[in-house]
Amino acid sequence: MRLQAPQFQALFTPGLRSVAELFEKKNYELRIAGGAVRDLLSGVTPQDIDFATTATPAEMKEMFTAAGVRLINNKGEKHGTITARLHEQNFEITTLRIDVVTDGRHAEVEFTTDWHKDAERRDLTVNSMFLGLDGTLYDFFNGYEDLQSKKIRFVGKAAERIQEDYLRILRYFRFYGRIAEKPGDHEPNTLQAIKENAKGLAGISGERIWVELKKILLGNHVNHLVQLMYELDIAQYIGLPLDGNLEEFARVTKNIQNLSPKPMTVLTSLFKGKDDVTNLDLRLKISKEEKNLGLFLVKHRQELTKASGPEPLRPYQDFLMDSREANTNSKIFELLKYQGEEELLKEMQEWAVPSFPVSGHDLRKMGVSSGKEIGTALQQLREEWKKSGYHMDKEELLSCLKKL
């Protein structure tokens, strides 16, 4: 098969043309690899493009240096990756590899010129394809067929792929949520391999797990996939509570389907209390902002709800106006998503937070001189302003002060 899609043609920037010429001159093969091929075959413009080549890192360095091309970020070099910068564009190019030793977290590699061997060490069939710069597809494990039928399968034997890097369990879930059409369409032997190897996730760093888990939480079939994590004994190894509230999770994931929630908003529905947020943080090293959002939702999801009557938003507005914390408005937006209040969310997002119209200076002009009296008077006026739904202006409030 040969791909000629507009998304593919659009990749041929002056930078890529120059790179292609250099490799061609030296008779090194260069192909697009992995996720970018999957995206192009799905009609999506890839965000990142990885290239694979038969040239070794030393050969690439020699070739680029001779051509006066700038090389940046040499961190990937021991894994076979060289990053070249041409025409204001970075090109990440990796030598074909074979895993020599794997410990479930890292691999020791040696270089090869065998495309099949490199494809064999990749995780999923849909991620194991290569695309020549002439549009020719190189597909050793029926990845294109799986992509068309929306099937997620490991390359070769699932257990072997998982034992090379246990994080692949979560990558399986992530791509299932991205590509599969319906929940529950798994091969039984894949689920069995995941269950038997779930414990391996205990040795994976929290940061790596959180990167994958966040993507799962924002993908499709999230309720099905998280329920499956509990069924397959994965939850306990990735910081989720042993007795997660799966009923609440099912309800909330339905509520927020079209509301673009933050991952933490979705995940908090599993939690019964603040200890669950703390334990998640200990395991996954979530950010301070994520932790604070989780604690906020756990604390306020039940009592901070809409008012009955003509002003349903008032409790949220009052809470925001009384709050002394930063980012309270964005936390309230997430709470409204959690509660499935789509209309109120729109209104709250459009509500311009009013500023209190009276200052201590205004009170001094009226003859109130002591600092203590000014503080008390401002607090009383604030309460009146709040009762008016934040509508009273300076004059109305000051005339109110005379009555008080």
Would you give an account of this structure?
The protein has 404 residues and is an alpha+beta fold. Among the domains are: 1-149, Beta Polymerase, domain 2 (2-Layer Sandwich), CATH 3.30.460; 360-402, no CATH class. It is 49% helix and 10% strand. It has helices at 6-9, 14-25, 35-41, 57-66, 115-120, 143-148, 158-164, 168-179, 188-197, 206-217, 222-231, 246-255, 263-268, 274-284, 288-300, 314-322, 328-338, 342-350, 360-365, 371-387, 394-403, and strands at 30-33, 50-53, 70-72, 81-86, 89-95, 97-102, 107-111, 130-132, 137-138. The chain has a seven-stranded mixed sheet with strand order 3-4-5-2-1-8-9. A hairpin with a 4-residue loop joins β6 and β7 (107-111). The chain is elongated, with a radius of gyration of 28 Å. The mean pLDDT is 93.
Calculate the mean pLDDT score and round it: 93
Q: In CATH's first tier, which class of one domain applies?
A: Alpha Beta
Tell me the β content: 5-15%
Q: What's the main sheet like?
A: 7 strands, mixed
Oligomer: single chain
Strand order of the largest sheet: 3-4-5-2-1-8-9
Number of helices: 21
How many β-strands, per DSSP?
9
> Share of helix among residues?
40-55%
How would you spell out the order of helices and strands? HHEHEHEEEEEHEEHHHHHHHHHHHHHHHH
CA distance, first residue to last residue: 83 Å
What Rg, in angstroms, do the CA atoms define? Answer: 28 Å
**pLDDT < 50 stretches:** none
Overall SS class = alpha+beta
Organism: Daphoenositta chrysoptera
Cofactor: Mg(2+)
Keywords: Magnesium, Metal-binding, Nucleotide-binding, Nucleotidyltransferase, RNA-binding, Transferase, tRNA processing
Protein name: TRNT1 nucleotidyltransferase
